[in-house]
From TrEMBL:
<dbReference type="Pfam" id="PF09586">
    <property type="entry name" value="YfhO"/>
</dbReference>
<feature type="transmembrane region" description="Helical">
    <location>
        <begin position="282"/>
        <end position="300"/>
    </location>
</feature>
<protein>
    <recommendedName>
        <fullName>Integral membrane protein</fullName>
    </recommendedName>
</protein>
<feature type="transmembrane region" description="Helical">
    <location>
        <begin position="306"/>
        <end position="328"/>
    </location>
</feature>
<feature type="transmembrane region" description="Helical">
    <location>
        <begin position="423"/>
        <end position="444"/>
    </location>
</feature>
<dbReference type="InterPro" id="IPR018580">
    <property type="entry name" value="Uncharacterised_YfhO"/>
</dbReference>
<feature type="transmembrane region" description="Helical">
    <location>
        <begin position="121"/>
        <end position="138"/>
    </location>
</feature>
<keyword id="KW-1133">Transmembrane helix</keyword>
<feature type="transmembrane region" description="Helical">
    <location>
        <begin position="340"/>
        <end position="361"/>
    </location>
</feature>
<keyword id="KW-0812">Transmembrane</keyword>
<keyword id="KW-0472">Membrane</keyword>
<feature type="transmembrane region" description="Helical">
    <location>
        <begin position="220"/>
        <end position="241"/>
    </location>
</feature>
<feature type="transmembrane region" description="Helical">
    <location>
        <begin position="367"/>
        <end position="388"/>
    </location>
</feature>
<feature type="transmembrane region" description="Helical">
    <location>
        <begin position="400"/>
        <end position="417"/>
    </location>
</feature>
<feature type="transmembrane region" description="Helical">
    <location>
        <begin position="834"/>
        <end position="852"/>
    </location>
</feature>
<feature type="transmembrane region" description="Helical">
    <location>
        <begin position="172"/>
        <end position="200"/>
    </location>
</feature>
<feature type="transmembrane region" description="Helical">
    <location>
        <begin position="144"/>
        <end position="160"/>
    </location>
</feature>
Length: 863
């Protein structure tokens, strides 16, 4: 019943909202719709088609380690359910998985209470449902990868309790090891909480210090064994994180409280999580009224040892302060401030409060009038304060205050009355479940969700247009660029090598390189959507996905999801395939994954926020210091200003409105050739500050960018006037790094063709092994690649392991002699072998210990 009740309630709710498979809505919103669903699609690819992508994938941006990604996103065994769904129907699978996790969360808490002999009968599903519907779980329903922590935490605590009672340590070790394997991030938070729990646990009885040390030693032993058994996941991942996340550790550390502390009281009411709370909200700690009443009873009752009460108050206070004080909050998050979804560890607080309440609850429990009146006084003051603060709280309104107060008063009255007959118990159970269900519904109703039609329209089209690219490519490595995208994880959905990704374990080198070549990037993402002919060629972009501009008003179509169109490729790239919505074009100037280049490529220097010059230098140095650049700055012929002064110099100019009306500036130029033109935009030229029109066509949404990015403008427009209009969204605008460039197409094509002749001929191509033969010349003896030079890659030339160098701040390069060579690139996950040895050794140790204890028991019986 503890499984079925929350599972059935949530199923009924999802069905009432017409979520797939019950209708045309889905659970997809925020990260679940923009990130996780793509990883779930990749999960099926790994299991059913390409196991090598468990370790490395060229679908992760330009190529990246994936073992750490999957250890964070995909190691939950419950994900097996998703194998039954293709990527078109994944939203239905995600709903099933979500319902299952709600049910298992309720069951695990009830199971732990039952085994602790604390609760039985009708109280089990009541406490189980309360735990499953806690504020943290509902708020993080969209972060499916974290929910296993809530499922396993009661089992870990139960196993710890049983181990302390001299039962098998496996009861503690197994669920804790599972937690570390399934999600190391949440396991870290669980580990910190276990330390707090043990400090509380040793106060239960007047134990002697020797016994207390023995209990702590048992706990430490079990934890160390779990660390050893799970080493094969966390050690390689930790090594990877040192190459990515560690670059930003202790960022944003501030020695102060994050918000006005009493505001947290508002989070004790239902429905207090919404879109505004996602980036910088308060901790989600809603549990309903009963656990708060029981907590008050726990710390004021004479039936509980005062030593236990003191430690309870201390630990509760520590957890509360951790959810508001910057340094402690940072500690709980592994010393890295979370991007969105703050206070991710608040589930341990919810568990703690409910666990305390369940430890003292029994059907005949009655609060004294003094306890009830004192609690009522505190509650009244809290509600009064929150009512006063309502105008400044973006998560609470008057109706929520009234609903929560009514439930609280009713339950407090019921807990104060002494007649606890059968009908009282039924009414209490219904009231508790009604309150947490109401809180859950109010929260989930705060969000909008992606329609199933929009999702399936996009995925079906992507599957169709990329079908030719999914054929075995043993002798052909290539990447695919996109002029449209639903998410940055499209390459995982379409099963092709791309150049965009959104990952919490993104290597910082990928972001750094993308900034150099003028592509949007951040700490957790890169987004290749404003490429040039040069960057396409260097990055092995053999194909390009482009919209054919059909049905732009229909959600999910390429025309509706276009970011930057690629007019620079028109008439140059050839059409390979079309369908009613999309074009698949082929790049005739693409360079292979490895090719011969000049040694000068090793000496390239870069400038910050100057992507066109950076691409010029990369290309020139690859070709041996060619004197003519591919891109040169071009001038605007005319400037038209409306409600602002026309600047004499465009790049770096400051515009200011003459009055409060609309203001704009239009830049005109006439191409003197059919060559492609590009425009650079500094990070101040963003969606908040400006709207951009190119030849009267609006750029729908400028991607977020921290550095200067490139916007492809036009191609094959010789003698035709071109217009670029900037409409000010604020009173002023800085035309930061706004510069027009034209391309020397003839020189580019000549040099690209020359370098293609020195390309590698592949004999093997997989995510972790690329092999082939290459013929290097005296003028181009450098083996240059578009494979990221990150830890794990090894290069063998003519059968011998060879040292590598880094080209263009990112890619593998090998200095060789002229002539023909057999080259192999192999990827081995760093530290995985060592980690497997440690895990296997820990397993052998535990089996040996179990065998030893079994032998001792048999020997004792025989005596």
């Amino acid at each position: 019943m503890s499984f079925l009740l929350p599972a059935l309630i949530m199923t009924a709710y999802f069905a009432s909202r017409h979520m797939a498979p019950f209708g045309n809505s889905t659970l997809l919103t925020v990260d679940l719709g923009q990130q996780y669903i793509d990883f779930f699609s990749a999960f099926k690819t790994i299991v059913t088609q390409d196991p090598n992508q468990l370790f490395y994938s060229f679908s992760k941006g330009l190529g990246g380690e994936t073992f750490g990604d999957w250890a964070y996103y995909l190691f939950s065994p419950l994900n097996i359910i998703l194998l039954a769904f293709d990527n078109v129907h994944l939203p239905a699978g995600i709903l099933l998985l979500t319902v299952l996790k709600y049910g298992l969360t309720g069951w695990s808490f009830a199971f732990a209470l039952h085994k602790m002999h604390w609760q039985r009968g009708w109280a089990l599903p009541v406490f189980g449902t309360t735990y499953a519907f806690m504020g943290w779980f509902v708020a993080n329903q969209f972060n499916l990868l974290w929910l296993d922590a809530a499922i396993l935490l009661p089992l870990i605590i139960l196993g710890l309790e049983q181990m302390l009672l001299n039962k098998s340590p496996w009861r503690f070790v197994l669920p804790l090891t599972a937690m570390m394997i399934i999600n190391y991030y949440m396991a870290y938070m669980v580990g910190l909480f276990l330390v707090c729990y043990m400090l509380w646990r040793i106060t239960w009885e007047p134990y002697g210090w020797r016994l207390r040390l023995k209990m702590l030693a048992k706990f430490a032993f079990g934890a160390v064994i779990s660390v050893g058994l799970s080493c094969f996941t966390w050690l390689p991942t930790a090594y990877t994180l040192m190459n990515s996340k560690s670059q930003y550790m202790l960022d944003d550390l501030h020695w102060k409280f994050d918000y006005f502390a009493p505001d947290m009281l508002g989070k004790l009411f239902g429905g207090t999580f919404n879109f505004d709370q996602m980036p910088t909200g308060l901790p989600n700690i809603f549990l309903g009224s009963l656990p708060i009443i029981l907590l008050w009873f726990f710390i004021t009752s004479r039936s509980v040892r005062w030593q236990v009460q003191v430690v309870t108050v201390l630990i509760t206070s520590f957890l509360i302060v951790s959810m508001m004080y910057g340094p402690l909050n940072l500690m709980w998050h592994g010393f890295q401030f979370p991007v969105w979804y703050p206070y991710r560890f608040s589930f341990v607080f919810c568990f703690w409060i409910l666990w305390l309440g369940a430890s003292v609850w029994h059907p005949n429990l009655t609060l004294s009038w003094l306890q009830s009146l004192s609690l009522l006084l505190i509650a009244g003051a809290s509600v009064g304060y929150l009512y006063y603060r309502l105008p400044k709280l973006n998560f609470l309104d008057q109706n929520q205050l009234i609903i929560g107060s009514c439930f609280f008063l009713l339950l407090l009255l019921m807990m104060t009355l002494e007649n606890h007959n059968r009908y009282w118990q039924i009414l209490l159970g219904i009231t508790v479940i009604a309150e947490v269900t109401c809180g859950t519904i109010l929260t989930l109703n705060n969000f909008s969700y992606l329609s199933n039609t929009e999702y399936q329209t996009y995925i079906r089209n992507l599957n169709d247009i990329t079908e030719p690219l999914k054929q075995p490519q043993k002798h052909n490595f290539f990447r695919v660029g996109q002029a449209f995208a639903r998410t940055k994880g499209d390459p995982f959905q379409g099963q092709y090598n791309g150049a965009s990704t959104f990952s919490s374990a993104l290597e910082y080198q990928q972001s750094r390189y993308m900034a150099l070549i003028g592509q949007p990037e951040g700490d957790n993402y890169i987004d290749y959507n404003g490429g040039t002919l040069v960057s396409d060629s260097m990055l092995s972009m053999k194909y390009m996905l482009e919209s054919n501009n059909q049905e732009p008003g229909r959600p999910g179509t390429p025309a509706n999801t276009t970011i930057f169109s690629r007019p620079d490729t028109q008439g140059i790239y050839t059409i390979e395939k079309t369908n009613p919505l999309t074009l698949l074009t082929k790049n005739p100037h693409v360079l292979p994954v490895a090719f011969g280049a000049s040694q000068n490529a090793l000496n390239t220097k870069f400038e910050t926020d100057n992507p066109m010059e950076n691409q010029n230098r990369m290309w020139q140095n690859m070709n041996g210091y060619q004197s003519d650049p591919i891109f040169t700055a071009a001038n605007f012929e005319n400037v038209k200003a409306y409600n602002t002064e026309a600047p004499k110099k465009i790049t770096g100019a400051f515009l200011k409105k003459t009055d409060k009306g609309n203001a704009s500036i239009t830049l005109e130029f006439t191409p003197d050739s059919d060559n492609p033109y590009y425009l650079t935009l500094g990070n101040e030229m963003n969606d908040d500050n400006v709207e951009i029109h190119v030849n009267n066509e609006v750029i729908k949404k400028l991607p977020s960018h921290r550095h200067t990015i490139i916007l492809p403008i036009t191609n094959h427009r010789k003698g035709e006037k071109q217009e670029i209009t900037f409409i000010l969204k604020k009173d002023d605008l800085w035309l930061q790094n706004v510069t027009l460039y034209q391309t020397n197409l003839e020189l580019f094509q000549e040099q690209a063709s020359s370098m293609q002749e020195n390309g590698i001929h592949l004999t093997k191509n997989s995510a972790t092994n690329i092999s082939g033969k290459i013929n290097l010349t005296e003028s181009r003896p450098l083996l240059m690649t578009s494979i990221p030079n990150t830890p794990g890659w090894e290069v063998y030339v003519d059968g011998k392991k060879t040292d590598t160098q880094t080209v263009n701040n990112f890619f593998i390069g090998v200095a060789l002699k002229a002539g023909e060579h057999t080259v192999t690139f192999k990827y081995v996950t760093p530290m995985l072998k060592t980690a497997l040895i440690i895990s296997f050794g820990s397993l052998l140790f535990m089996f040996g210990l179990a065998w030893s204890e079994s032998s001792k028991r048999k020997h004792s019986l025989n005596r």
